[in-house]
Amino acid sequence: MKAKKRYFLVLISCAFLILCYFGKYYLWTNGKREAKGFSYTKHKLQSYLSTKEVYGGKDSTVSPRSRRKEKVKTTDTVKCNMARCFDFSRCIDDFKVYVYPVEDSISPAYQKILSIIQESRYYTDDPSQACLFVLSLDTLDRDHLSPDYVKNIHLKLHQRAKYWNNGRNHVLFNLYSGTWPDYIEDLGFDVGQAILAKASTSVSKFRQYFDVSIPLFPKHHPKKGGERGTLTSNNFPVNKKYTLVFKGKRYVHGIGSETRNSLHHIHNNKDIILVTTCRHGKSWKQLKDERCETDNIGFDRSLVWPNLVYCIQSLAQKRGNKMVSGMKSLSYKDRLKSLNLFSLDKRRVRRNRIEVFKIVKVPDIIRSINKTRVHALRQHTRIMWDNYFSSIEKIVMTTLEIIRDRISAQTARSYVIWNSHPGALLSLPQFSDILRDFPFYWRHLAASISPNFTAIIYATMPIMSSSSPLARLIKNVAKSSFASRILVLWNGETAPPIANKLPQVSVPVNIIQPPQKTISSRFHPHPLVQTDAVLNLDEDAVLTTEEVDFAFKVWQSYPERIVGYPARSHYWEDSKSCWGYTSKWTNEYSMILTGAAFYHRYYNYLYTFYLHNLLHKTVDQSQNCEDILMNFLVSHVTNLPPIKVTQRKQYKETIATDGKTYPTPWNDPDHFVQRQICMNTFVDTFAYMPLVRSSLRLDPVLFKDPVSNLRKRYRKLEQEGWK
Amino acid sequence: MVSVRNAPRLTRRYTPFFNVLFCFILVALVLGGLSTLWPWNSETPKREFVLQSEEFAPVATVLSTDALAKSTKSSCTFYNCFDVYRCGQHGSSLTVYIYPILRYVDENGLPVMNALSKEFMEILEAIQESKFYVTNPDKACILVPALDLLNQNNLHLKETSQILAGLPYWNSGINHLLFNMLPGNVPNYNPCLEVERDNAIVAGAGLSTWTYRRTYDISIPLFSPLSQDFQHETIEINESPRKWLIVSPQINIHSEYREELEELKEEHPELLVLDECIPAKPDNATERCHDGETYFYPSILKNSTFCLVLQGARLAQATLSDAMMYGCIPVVAIDGYVLPFSEVLDWKRVAVRLREDHLHDLIHILKSISEHRILEMRKQAHFIWTQYFSSIQKITLTTLQIINDRVFPHFARTYEEWNDPPWKEGTTPPLNLPVIVPKSQGFTAVILTYDRVESLFKVIRRVVQAPSIAKVLVVWNNQQKHPPPATSWPKINKPLKVVQTKENKLSNRFYPYDEIETEAVLAIDDDIVMLTADELEFAYEVWREFPDRIVGFPSRVHLWDNNTGKWKYESEWTNEISMVLTGAAFYHKYYSYLYTTSLPGDIKTWVDSRMNCEDIAMNFLVANITGKAPIKVTPRKKFKCPECTNVEMLSADVIHMAERSECINKFAQVYGKMPLKTVEFRADPVLYKDNFPEKLKRFNNIGSL
């Protein structure tokens, strides 16, 4: 017993010794950890800088003025930013773009770009007014093997570009540069201080805050209009046949070939389809590898874009091309940043082995993205496509708008505007610097829409008596508790009526005269319009207070649309292959007459300052169609139909109270012909038909329900109007 | 005798003991010998990072002959200089290693680095305590040398570069991160740390557009020591106008700027230009003077709407951070300055940027900014400061998060996560495709049923008459009874599926079944037999135009009861609606998914346990994320059989209504607000009740009772 105890004791002590021996290190380090408190006392330490260094450090040697004036050397243009290489003094008053006169033949794509600028509201033919200059020399394709390559461009540049000034304030558009196999990003001439709007720019060559990265578009890309994205189904979860797809050329060697050569590692022929072809140019057969034959077969068994969720972008000369087609089918997943700078995965390959390792992770990465995010990204690609990619016009205008945002930084459009529907091209920052003034973002901000409206009455006929239609209209509108002001827009030949001839009502009534007496002046933005809602009225509109109230209530739910009473419709006339216009009662409508309609005042601004001159001319010359144009504009912005609300029977009075019949356009057959012509001109200018049809009308909840009239808030709506 | 007999016994007894002892000693010796060969017991003990001031740290000698790090690569981008393959071993998160702190001395034993500063210690501490920190350099994606490079004035450029090159895992600086706040030195003040550092990444303050390597470096704010003493209660960020429109608080600006500002001030008294006091007190940073009047910095920033930030010797100015701290909108007139964290932060929402050439236009530009925007910017500036600038720890973690986002872009924080303050109320709708849903898809009718087979069959026959129906899905919620055999179901020309649930739960009606292949779901009760094909088709048409809303037939409204101080559920004939019952309603399938996965609080269990209010919950859900009201279509109908009205039913009705009111109050409490929106309209076909031949109306069988 005793012996056992002794054995035990000895064993314990031995174990302890060994433990001490081995545990020495741990104890030592642990001890050190505990010592942390001793060896590091924060308050005893000095700050990294003295007070003098924080608030001192005066720069007394270099004069900032001379530093700014310092000329940027030719070799230094890689360091260009807007402050160094751009002459802002040209852009103080206005943002105008000058295009040099075309002397040589230029490629159709470049021709399109130039004519888009020439047709845009930014164009000027006076170089002294210009803020930006665009060359007439075709710089789109700088691949010297290409037929569109302009030789001796450097010489021509100096001969023809009179205002070149080492590229100051010039914008160069470029799609291709260099050639196979390296595709160097050099344009083959000194671009100097010109802003490069270039497809396929790399991070290292891109001059940040200066150049603009544009999408590469194919030759047949539409000039204007452009197809809407094909994503119309918004199903959830996204259940497409293929998860990841790539279809493209695989150069057996040269830039980007490692990435593409390794794509087949993750091709599984089920949901991941990555097909490549070696066919390229003439000499591909000499260079082909053992996989080329089978690859080519797989490539030819083509598949369609719409059935996929993601598509791959990898380094290649024509990567933009793929992106454009991928986005159209709404599957391209990429980070689209506010300034339209695309972060493509251009990871340069150091060792092929590693690249393979990375590429096999792609399926995992893609599958790790959750369903809601995939859903959101898909919608976003469609919005981006519609906003900025679908036509050359959008690409060019986006480029100009990006530069414009840089010039007037304090009115630059916010990220939210750039990244949501309807986008920066349709949200003009000169209108307002806050989002809630636009009709599109107030839900995003949880802002409330303004609780009042301003009525604008377009008047031409003198007021005869206090019972004239205009007087009656003013009285009825003023009775609405939501009316904050009534403007009588005097467009008549005679002098405007004196204010005391107008009925005395509880809201302020102002008589205003438009700067120009055209039919479009009813949409001229007036500083007295301070509410979000505008009620635009013809002087002969017959509306009761109840009708106004109800329509305004509806508008508050749909401030981005036109809400009004009489509706019209468009249809396609197959026999004449043109658009037809009808005022007949139909099951559908696509326009609301602005003779009595609510809309957001921002549309007045857009109508006046955004719309193409040609459209204004059409309206002014015909003295007609301004309401159709407004409907085109709003549907162009929203992609949605207007909203018709219910009205009492009888809207127009053709016979005025004095018994005389005024000639009104409504009984004039020429009127309809003219409107039809207008509509087709508009479609040509917009390059598509923006109108959308709707088959619903909004009525009060209890409208014509079999319940006591006393319960109904809008009971007069159900009564017949005056004849 | 005894002893003689005992002796051999004793020996015999003790022999095994000595044997064991001997064995132990032998083993101990062998192990001891071996242990000296273990790396952790070698002559030069492995140095691991311990947060300590360097005076207690081991000494390392820098020889004047040691190689310098190669010169800084100006063309580095994330894609050609960064080794991503070091990352990702830790899941989808960055891993950061810190080198041990050493005391560097030259051959003469004189220190070559200044003492570690408090701020640098805080950087190291922040990293060590972050989720990114690892102790094993082999597992690290980012390596941070424990070298205080914050202030270039304190650096010996050559020796610092030698130390960098001598770091054990230097590998030409790949994935090494260096922190710097004051770059450059007299006379040029290069806007970048001038230590030769090969591939190393710089997190630097005061980088210019041409020293900042996009996608590679990180522009960080110059940490203002005043941040530590800031007390939140001292400022109020509201609409009330401040005394000055703009103040230029810096004393270190070039005389040319000062002259220009003085000139501006002549015309615009709302501009305040501060300067050093005379006589100058170089150690007193708080006193600033103007016209003989003394103002105290930084509290003067509280009294101005805008604060002008101009460059001194360096681009980065602590005034930027100070101004934001006090809710004063910075007006940054520094050409070519890369604003802090501009890779992720939206500076348009925070600051006004002005070109130096346009300084004379300053007042004009500021006056063109609307009041509302000023308030927005002021709030945002203070929010960004609090979130990302207010302490060294925040600056450090933001830097690491930015690198993390670059390495794992598919998990990167979104713009909204970086920039939107938590108090932002607006909704970002999950369904925002600006299109009218194409008709071709059709809709799926989901019918929840328990055992009313006869009525169910009637409903099925009714709904398949709508031309756009694509499929009928019956959710059989009865576990006691099996659904009737396939032969007894009505013969219809559309696919019909029956799913049997495991539990009789109301939430089953909103489960996003794989069988639902269309976007549009028509939820319909098994007793809603009165809807006509025209009505269903028209409702589907309306839904196509408003796919983010609930579009349906029976409507209800919620009202505030002033007597009880509670919400009340109302089913009477009212002029308003705020809910559409899902007994007959169209909605997007996405909402099924949201209902199943992300109903807030305990709403789902509440609904399932009470077997009631699932429709109210759905209305709350949709209204909350869209901010929109539902849409009622077509006139009111009698939905419950009129003949069964009797006293019992009425009393049951009263209880039912009380329960529904209770639900509304419960849900409003869970959401913390009342998300439901009230509207006064419903949707009818364009020609509804118009004086027009019925035959020509597309939907004429509408509203018949």
UniProtKB/TrEMBL annotation, chain A:
Name the record gives this protein: Exostosin-1-like
InterPro entries: Exostosin, Exostosin_GT47, GT64_dom, Nucleotide-diphossugar_trans
Membrane topology listed for this record: Single-pass type II membrane protein
Alphabetic keyword roster: Disulfide bond, Endoplasmic reticulum, Glycoprotein, Glycosyltransferase, Membrane, Signal-anchor, Transferase, Transmembrane, Transmembrane helix
Pathway assigned to this chain's UniProt record: Protein modification; protein glycosylation
Record-linked Pfam families: Exostosin_GT47 (PF03016), Glyco_transf_64 (PF09258)
Family: Belongs to the glycosyltransferase 47 family.
Chief location of this protein within or outside the cell: endoplasmic reticulum
Residue span(s) of domain Exostosin GT47: 94-296
Entry's transmembrane regions: 7-28
Localization per Swiss-Prot or TrEMBL: Endoplasmic reticulum membrane
Gene: LOC106460090
Glycosyl transferase domain boundaries: 453-703
Statement: the UniProt record of this protein carries the keyword Glycoprotein: yes
TrEMBL record, chain B:
Membrane topology: Single-pass type II membrane protein
Transmembrane parts of this sequence: 20-40
Keywords: Disulfide bond, Endoplasmic reticulum, Membrane, Transferase, Transmembrane, Transmembrane helix
Subcellular location: Endoplasmic reticulum membrane
Keyword Endoplasmic reticulum: yes
Gene3D superfamilies per record: Spore Coat Polysaccharide Biosynthesis Protein SpsA, Chain A (3.90.550.10)
Residue stretches making up the Glycosyl transferase domain: 443-688
Principal location: endoplasmic reticulum
Similarity comment: Belongs to the glycosyltransferase 47 family.
Coiled coil: none
All copies of domain Exostosin GT47, residue ranges: 92-369
Full protein name: LOW QUALITY PROTEIN: exostosin-2-like
